[in-house]
Amino acid sequence: MKSLPATTKAYFIKLGEGGAWESVCLAEGTIKFGYHATPQDLCLQGEWEKVKAFWTERRGKESTASNDMRQIRTFFEANEDDIFITFAKGYMWWCRPTGTPVVMHDDDGARVRQTIDGWKNTSIGGEPLQVSRLSGKLTKTQMYQGTICDVEERAYLLRRINDEKTPELAEAEGAEQVLLKQILAMVRLLTPRDFELMVELIFSRSGWQRQSRTGGSQKTLDLDLLLPTTHERAFVQVKSRTNTAQFADYAAEFAATDAHARMFYVWHTGTINRDPPANITLWGPDVIGSKVLDAGLLGWLKDRVS
Length: 306
Description:
The protein is an alpha/beta fold.
C-alpha cells in the first residue's frame, strides 16, 4: 500500500452513540452516520444551505445548525483521497471512504458508506496503532462531543500511518543504537559473577523476587524467581558464552520438570541457531543492551568496568 500524501484530509467520526455501531462497522468495513431526519435528496444535490435551513428550523439556533450541516456535508463529500479515523477496542482505526451514502431503511434512516479495503488498526507497514502508544494530542480527539470533526493533529496522524519518523526521533534512535552497542561491549568485560549479578538486578527491578541464592551447585539453576503479582515461578540460566548445543541441553532439562512455568536463558556472547519453545525466553546479545538501559543499570555497569 502506498503512503498517504501529506495533503490527505483526515476526519474523526464517532460510530454511533456510545460506539453502538463500532463492532458492525469495523467487521463489515462500513461507515454509519446518523442525522436520520436529513432529506437525502438535498444532500445528494449538494443543497447545503437548504440542509442548514432544515436543521435551523429544528434546532432553533443557526450556529448549531451550521455545525450539523458541516458534519453532514463532510460525511457525504469526503472522497477516496480522504480518511476517517475512530477509536475502538484499544486501537485507532482508519479507512478511506468510497461510494455514495445510502439510507438504511431498516435502521431508522441511518446512512452508510463503503470503504476501500475496510478499517485498519495498523500502519501501512503493519505496526499496531494502539491508543496507549499514540500522542495524547491525537487521542483526545475521541472526546469530541459531536459526530465528525477535523483531526487537528493531521501531520502527526499521517506520520504514524505512514511509518514516518520525525528527524528528531530518527536522530535519537540512531544515537540509542550506538549506545546499545557500547553497553554490550561493556557487558562483555564483566566477570561471570558480575554478569550474573547484573542479570539478577534486571529481574529484580522488573518485579521478580529471587527465591534462592545466585549460582550454586545445581546444574540447571542460576536464579529461582517469583513474580508476586501473579505467583508465576521462573528460573534463569545465565551464561557468559554459549552455543546451540549447550542451550539444547538446558532446554531438555527444563522440559523434564514442571517446577517452573518459564525459563529465561541469558548470555552475552555466542549464537543460538534454534527457535525456543514458547515457555523459554532467550535474552542474547541483541537484547542485553536494552535490558540494561531499561532497568537503569548503565551507571552500575560503568562502575563495574571502569
